[in-house]
Amino acid sequence: MDSQKNLEAEGVVHISEGGLEYSIYLPDRGVDYIQTYIFNQKLPYERDMLINMCSHLQKGDIVLDIGANVGNHTLYLAGVRQAKVLAFEPNRHLADAIRRSVQLSGLEDAVTVFNIGLGKISAHAHFEKDIPENLGAQKLEVGDGELEIARLDDQKIPSPVKIIKIDVEGMELDVLEGGRNLILRDRPLLYIESATEASYRQISTYLAELGYGYWEGFNATPTHFFRPLASISLNEQVERLIQREVFQEYRLREQLRLAYRAQNDAVAKTRGLEQQVGKLSADLASKDEQLQEAKNALKTAEETLQDKDDLLEKKAATLEEYRREVEVIRTQLDGMNELPPGVVRIADSVQPGSSPKGTMEGLLSKMVTIKQSLIERNAELDVMRMRLTAAEKHLGSIVDSTSYQLSKKIIEAGTSLSGFLRLPFAITVLMGRGVMRRLAKGKNQAYTRPLNLRAKEYIIREIKARPALERPARRALNWWRAKSGVADQMDVALPEHRGRAVTVIQGASAKAKYGKAKKRSPFASEIKVATILDEFSYGSFACEFQAIPIEPDNWRERFEREKPDIFFCESAWSGPDPVRRPWKGKVYASINFKNENRAIILEIIEYCKYKGIPTVFWNKEDPTHFDDRVHDFVKTARMFDFIFTSSEECVERYKLDYNCKHVFALPFATQPRMFNPLEVREERTEDIVFAGSWYAQHPERSALMKRILDRFLDDGFSLKIFDRHFGVDDKNHFFPERFQSYINPGVRHSEISEVYKSSIYGLNFNTVVDSNTMFARRVFELASSNTLVLSNYSKGVEEMFGTDVIFVDREPGRLKALNSADVMAMRERVLNKVLEKHTYEKRWQYILDCIGYGYRENDNALTIVFRVSSDEEAEKAIFYTNQLEGVIPRVRLLLLVDDLVLDSNVAVFYQKYNRYGHGVVSESYLKNYADDLDEIVSTPNVLYIPKCSFPPSDWVKKAVNHLVYAEKRYICFDQAEPRYRISNVDPSKPLLCSAEGMRALLRKGEEGQWSSAFCV
């Protein structure tokens, strides 16, 4: 993906047409208008003419592109129609661009580029003037200069030439005169540009002398198609002339109609403008009135504001008086607190010898007086405190009142620009607050709360007291809503509880079911999953569930409409579209970003928590990027409920370093629908196939690759390298010189299966070699393509596949020592192991098990249909089925009574065998009466066995794993036939298929696509 981005940055675009594609290098995009058009539209220029040219060409026909410009016509005709093109372009800059495009497209054998101009005589020339915005429009001035001009007749042009295209900015007639002999020799079709009528008349007159006639025209700058008159019958010429006259009449009528419509549109537009002027005048008067009203309102508001200010000043003065009184009382109270020392002084004042009784009575009298005074002062203090509290509350209510706040905002609007700009928003907020207060006031007047609200509050309190109840409660609520159609009104009942979703998950067992599988849990393939996956992972996982790919600008709409059950995100670099790259730089965190770049991902996670949707993250970049803080997928993974890592060794690091509770290892796998053993050619080669890149920036890996590739060549093997960075001008990706002759352009991921199946041997290189689970997905894909895996050593590969993978760095001589039988056996063992245990269907089920999501395994139940005509055959069928039940789960027997059996005897079969889970049906009944086989066969898959031709049980167990990619083909048991080669159906052999295939088999003549089979 990075290489594609780099190529596009250099000006290289890929153009696809009719299943074929080519690359074109556009060095002057953004300046030259033709190159800019091709770069922006990803389409060829003058496409209609190119399609017409292709209609006259066969594969290998010779075409001369004279005035090739940047190679638009050359590359299209060579890449799409597979013609042999000789391109003539005098501008060296453009000729070099064509050569690079040819190299990028792998068209070296189809295109020859001549850096010369063509004319009437051999000479030299220079460009009349520089036109950077249209390089193809630069005219040649013959005389002196560095550009070479030659005659077409002097060139060694192979015969026959089918088409000549000439676009040489006014020198077209010179080119024709210089190529007269070639034109008379091969009588090619001519496509000639003529910018002016005078030029066309000259060319037409000259070509008439050579026996050519005008046929049709193309393009904005007229390009005329001339054909040899000898190849056109008189009737065709007459019919063409009539057509031209008819077309000319249609064009004139269309021009007249357009002119009439334009006139009517102009009249209507004038009337519309007059109406708009009148309406605008009325609007202007209305706006003046509104402006005057606004001025009056502002004046009233200012007066009201002044009144409020006066009132506020009075209240502030009153409050200040209250505060001063409180201070006085506090001072008095402090004096009262010193009462005990005063009493002591009174006691000290008692004279010696005075009467104790009199003294005591005097003291008691004074104490009573003081105590009464203290009580009075405390009462006064309480009163003052109450007055102070009331005053402060009153002041607060004034400050918090809507009228005061509105007055304050109007003052701010009159004193600052920012206040003026914020005034509309502030008024809206204050109006909303006033409405809410009135509503709240009305609710508070109700004496009794409704029963349903009190019940809801009670439930919420119970859930808060028991956090483990939150998940099942939310799922029950969602189920009830779905059944009853009630809107999400109750979601707001737990606003402070939303953030607990992850805590609840982490506090519960990872095996606790999200709503345990009730009677009808969905099949694993029926679960709806919102996904953020890169191209390869999306292609691998998308058919294992109901995939809902989301993008930054549509995720919420898709969530609301599709209502996914799970959110599944991987360490995505760009998303499923490698061209638009909607998720580029939005999934990983980075220390290089000043602001949060993951805002959308975080918003999705919060949404899922709120809705109770489990969130799953697969970090396929571990362990390489685990400590990478520039591309920090780990920081994102920690936000999800469940984490899956490609490296088993990182599981504990997530738990210990980041306190993540639910972390699991998830290796790559294969998708058999894309990578399967069905052969695509007659014979596989023994080339060592490698689809990948050279990385000079990784010296150790580069040294290892060179050593291994050298050893293959020294041992007599040939290489076939599909370079992912083919054509990229980056020395880090240049293969060493010795391997250059073995290099081919890279292919898309969707086409790589054919590359893998082109040879017996497939080469893999692992960057990570010491992980139990992390190694290249290429290993699984080669294996399921029935290609022997050659790889550098990897701990994980060895643990999964043992000696059935050849580690070429540790066993350099092993491959050469193997015979063909050994190689075939190794390929077969690895193929069956991968199809049984390492598909993305199995990986998806593993994810569901780990997160505790209730599901049913995809229904792979099997009905064995035996064609029988006797009791002996029926007994053998029952015995075979009983044996098979120990090997394959969910097996059912259906005895198909041969239509040769008399109807009177069919009833005996029903009576004896239609029991114990077995079924009986007559073939004649199915043909004549049963419109739908589903009434008889209830399983998705069928094994049809004619006349006791029992396949071994281990073959059945193995063959069932191949159904996933069989599509509308039968899987046949025939040990004499080669495996995985598509052939015609033989109904006398055991056949494994879907129930639909069984229906086609019984109703001969209605097979449709069910006409082929392959053996395993």
TrEMBL record:
The keyword Nucleotide-binding does not apply. Gene3D superfamilies: Vaccinia Virus protein VP39. InterPro entries: FkbM_mtfrase, SAM-dependent_MTase, SAM-dependent_MTases_sf, YkvP/CgeB_Glyco_trans-like. Residues 65-212 form the Methyltransferase FkbM domain. GO terms for biological process: methylation. Keywords: Coiled coil, Methyltransferase, Transferase. One of its GO terms (molecular function) is methyltransferase activity. Residues 277-339 form a coiled coil. The keyword Coiled coil applies. It holds the Pfam family Glyco_trans_1_2. Residues 740-849 form the Spore protein YkvP/CgeB glycosyl transferase-like domain. This is FkbM family methyltransferase.
